[in-house]
Amino acid sequence: MKAENSTNLRLFKFNIFIEYNKTYSSIMYSFQIDNKSYYSDEVPIILWWTPFGTDGKLRNCGNYQCYFTSNRSLQYHPNIKSFLFYGTAFQINDLPEWKSNEVPWGLLHEESPRNNPILVHQQTLNLFTYSSTFSRFSDVPLTLIDLPGITELLSKKYFVSTKEKTKLIHTKNLAPLLYIQSDCDTASNRDIYVAELMKHIRVDSYGTCLNNVQLDTRLKENYLEILNSEDFLSFISKYKFTIAFENAVCEDYITEKLWRPLIVGSVPIYYGSPSFKDWLPNNMSAISVREFKDPISLANFLQKLVLNETEYDKYLSHKLINNYEIHNERLKKAFEKNTTWFRNEFGNYVEEFECFICESIQKKGKKKVVDKEHYDCPLPINPLTNEVDHNNWWVQQWIVEKCGAKVLTYYLQNNFTINMENFEKEKLQLYDKNKC
What we know:
By secondary structure, this protein is α/β, with parallel strands linked by helices. Helix content is 30%, strand content 16%. Helix 4 packs across helix 8 (295-307). The two termini are 42 Å apart.
C-alpha cells in the first residue's frame, strides 16, 4: 500500500488525536505541522461499514481532506458523509440507516456475483452512489487489477519457444492444453464445456475439477499460494494452450485466468467477459470460445494450430516480435493513469476509491446512482447450449436474489428493521408467485 500523502513538503509530524465530545457531538482533529497545532471540526467522516480500507486516519485527497474510519460508534455523527461497503461482506441484516441524499453509499467489489448474488440486480445497485468494480464504467475501475502491466505482457522471462513446446508434447507426453481448476461449482458451469472438449483433444487437468494428471509434489503443496510463483509460471509456459474460463460471465470481469497464460506465453482459450478482447495486446492474443459453435469445432481448430507452428506463432506476436508495440489504445491509456504506483496492488485502488468519494462529496456535483452498467452480470447460461439452464443452481440463486433485492429496497426506503426470518419469507413468497 502506498505511503501516506504529505500535507506539504515541510511535514515532519502528523499526529491525529480524536476527542468525542458528547455535549456538542463533534470530533475535533488535532495535527501538528512545524510544531504548530491546527484544529477542524468540519472534516467529513467516511465510514467503512464493512471494515476494509483505511481506518482511523485523516487523509489528503487533492485539495480536500477526509477522515476514514471503521468505528461504527460514529455513524450518527453530523460529519458522516458516506458509508462504504466491500461487496463480499455486504449483509442485508447488518446495514446502516439508508439516507441516500445525506449519506450516500459506496460499493467496492472486484469479485464475481457468486460471492453475493444480490448485487447483480438493479434495485440493489441503485442503493449505491459510488462504485469501484471490475466494470470499465465504474468510478474507479478494477478491470485490470490482476494484470501487473504492459511490461509483463511483453516480457520473455518465462517464454518457451514453439519448437520446444512441440518437443515437450512428444518427449514429456504433455497435452497441448492445460486446465487447472479447483472450484468445480461455478455460475459459468465451465466444467461441462471442458469435459466435452476433452473428448476431442488432449487436456492435462491438474486441479480438483476433471482431474486426470497429478501435479509435481513441489507444486501441489500449498497449491493456491504458489499460483504466481516463478516455478508455477514456468510450468504453465510449457503448454501451447491454457484453458481460461471465469467462474461467472460478466462484462469486464477478467481475472488472472486470462493474464497468467498471456504473461508466460501460453495461448489462453478464454470464456468469460464477452468484451475481453478490448484489453488484449492485439486481437489474436487469445482464442475466444464464443467464436466456435461447439467444443468439437474448437478442438478441430486447436488441433490444426498444434501441427502448424507458423500459424500458432501468430498468437504470440507480442512475445516474438522484438520491441513489439502495443496498438491497443484502451489498454495503454489504462496503464498510463496513476503511473506513480503499481496498479496490481489492490490497496492502491482502495485508496483511489476513497479519495474519489472524499472529493465527490465535497465538490457536491450532480447526484447519480450505480446501475447495471457498473456490475453487468446477466443470468447464467449453459456454455454448451448458450441458453439459460434452469437446472443450474446458480440460475435459481440469480432469480431468488432478484426478489431479495426488491424486498431489501422496500425495507430500506421505509426504514424498516430487517428481521431475517421475515425477510426470507417475503423473498420466497415473491419468488413462488413469480413477482420479482
